[in-house]
Design goal:
The complex is a heterodimer of chains A (265) and B (266). Chain A has 265 residues and is mainly alpha-helical. In chain A, 82% of the residues lie in helices and 0% in strands. In chain A, helix 3 packs parallel to helix 6 and helix 3 packs antiparallel against helix 8. Chain B contains 9 helices and 10 strands. In chain B, the strands form 2 sheets. Chain B has a 6-stranded mixed sheet with strand order 6-7-8-3-9-10, sandwiched between helices. In chain B, strands 2-1-4-5 form a 4-stranded antiparallel sheet, with helices on one face. The chains are: A mainly alpha (265), B alpha/beta (266). Chains A and B meet through helix 7 and helix 8 of A and helix 4 of B.
Chain lengths: 265, 266
């Protein structure tokens, strides 16, 4: 069986072997550090960055931008998605804009956003929100419309109002779609924030990568990339953690909920 | 009230009265689903409707539930026309249609929430009804933890919780296996005898129709019309053994012939 303590050790071993081979190759072939740094130099850079509290400040800034952008983007996406899903006229007039905007690579807007909102926090939040907006809006629309006909008929046969059908059926029924959208939106918000920092910023992990690039500090860049992937993992973990609590009833994840229950016992 | 008293007593009133009812889908020259349906259902009566697929029996049920409006004629419930969903109707569909995010008790209380009848008042009634169908102890389970038959029992209790004037059942046991289905038939009869609801029960199965009903209405397709009506004069409570008796077999055969004559079983 996959999983289990024996395989976990094997997995750690595999990572250790990978890092050892990497270290050996760089040293053996004398690859310059500014092309490919050794793992040991990356970890040294990471340690130094964290110890000097340099990274902590930048992580904090990128995290703030990402979370604010996520909240702003997904709130707007939920409102727009709901209105579009519930009203055919609104959909008819609004959807062309939505489709046009959706097919545009949003990161290409980052330079404009910097011009409009400056080098500070606002432009990063706006860019993160913009990128996080679409996956959730589309999923909200699809989710709200996914209620089965029988369930809608049941509600109607009880003389339920439209508002009741929305709150008691459509919204809970859409939650699996909404959480799938939130998961994507969270990672997209991080990408949006980093891209905006690339284009113009005074702080943040994206800015840090770029300034390290100018000074040829490749080991430093690797260490920030490592930090970014950990940040992404953490943010994703928050969303999936909430989802597991809210969507305990969802068939697609019921299986791991049940096995989790057994493990807890 | 027991069965014999009911049989001798004159029928007080018709709960459902259907007059010249017709339904055409689409425009005037569209598909005629129902044509000139005339029928009444008495208070506390159990009416079964049998017919092949496409005979319009589901359409008829949806009109009674207020989910569709007829294109001609009218359907009256306690004297007033059915012109849209009403609060005094309970519906059981072919599938249980339970909300997976609600517990068994939560699903049963759905009509209470929708019609704002007050959960505190209705909670005990919900528990009593769940006990009636043998689901005590399952109140806080979730639908996915129940078997198909248990889910359909929850759906039945949900349809009864707000004490509707009529119970409409659209092939409620069609998706269950044969053994569970027979057990559910016995159980439904027991609940009906205890609660005396007016029931309109749609089914594909002639034996299920005969087993449960006071009267069996045969519908014929294209367009949906009423064929023959059969009074089922078998003593209650009926047990599953009754299905092997001569009299039961005669009813089933006569209904099957009526279905054949109507072009039902092609």
């Amino acid at each position: 069986m996959i999983g289990g303590p024996k395989n976990f050790v094997l997995r750690l071993l595999l990572i250790a072997v990978f890092l050892a081979v990497w270290e050996a190759v760089v040293r053996l072939f004398e690859i310059p550090l500014f092309i490919l740094p050794t793992p040991s130099s990356v970890f040294t850079a990471l340690y130094r960055g964290i110890a000097s509290s340099l990274y902590v400040d930048h992580v904090w800034i990128t995290l703030t931008e990402t979370l604010l952008g996520f909240v702003l983007g997904t709130s707007l996406a939920f409102v727009f998605g709901t209105v579009i899903a519930l009203s055919r006229p609104v959909e008819y007039f609004l959807y062309p804009f939505v489709v046009m905007f959706q097919s545009m690579p949003k990161v290409a807007l980052a330079p404009l956003i910097i011009v409009w909102f400056g080098l500070g926090l606002t432009s990063k939040v706006v860019n993160a929100a913009l990128v996080a907006f679409f996956p959730l809006m589309v999923n909200t629309i699809v989710g709200l419309r996914s209620a089965e006909e029988d369930k809608v008929n049941l509600m109607k046969s009880l003389a339920a109002s439209r508002t009741q059908i929305f709150w008691m059926l459509q919204l809970p029924n859409a939650m699996p779609y909404i959480f799938a959208g939130l998961e994507i939106a969270m990672i997209f918000a991080l990408i949006g924030a980093i891209v905006a920092e690339f284009v113009g910023a005074q702080a943040g992990l994206g800015m840090l990568i770029q300034s390290m690039n100018f000074t040829m500090d490749v080991a430093g860049q690797f260490s920030v990339l490592l930090l970014l992937s950990l940040l992404g993992l953490l943010l994703n973990g928050i969303v999936t953690g909430v989802r597991r609590r809210v969507l305990f009833w969802d068939a697609s994840q019921k299986f791991d909920a049940e096995s989790a229950k057994k493990e807890a016992v | 009230m027991d069965a014999t008293a009911r049989e001798t007593a004159p029928i007080a009133r018709d709960v459902i009265a259907i007059r010249n009812l017709s339904k055409t889908y689409g425009r005037a020259d569209g598909v005629v689903a129902l044509s000139d349906i005339d029928c009444t259902v008495a208070d506390g009566e159990f009416l079964s409707i049998v017919g092949p697929s496409g005979c319009g029996k589901s359409t008829l049920l949806k009109i009674l539930a207020g989910l569709l409006s007829p294109t001609g004629g009218e359907a009256l419930l306690n004297g007033t026309p059915i012109e849209g969903p009403r609060k005094d109707i309970g519906v059981v569909f072919q599938s249980a249609v339970l909300f997976p995010w609600r517990s068994v008790l939560g699903n049963v209380l759905l009509p209470v929430d929708v019609q704002q009848l007050g959960r505190e008042k209705m909670n005990q009634r919900a528990l009593d009804l769940l006990a009636l169908v043998g689901l005590t102890g399952f109140e806080h389970r979730y639908p996915w933890e129940l078997s198909g038959g248990m889910q359909q029992r929850v759906a039945l209790v949900r349809a009864l919780i707000h004490d509707p004037a009529i119970l409409l059942m659209d092939e409620p046991f069609g998706a269950l296996d044969a053994m569970t289905r027979e057990a559910m038939n016995v159980e439904l009869q027991r609940i009906w005898m205890e609660r005396r609801k007016t029931v309109v029960f749609i089914t594909h199965s002639t034996s299920e129709a005969v087993f449960l009903a006071d009267r069996v209405m045969v519908m014929t397709p294209r367009p949906g019309k009423i064929g023959d009506m059969f009074e089922v004069d078998l003593p209650r409570p009926r047990t599953l053994d009754i299905m092997t008796t001569e009299k039961f077999g005669v009813y089933v055969r006569r209904i099957r012939n009526a279905l054949n004559a109507g072009g039902g079983l092609e």
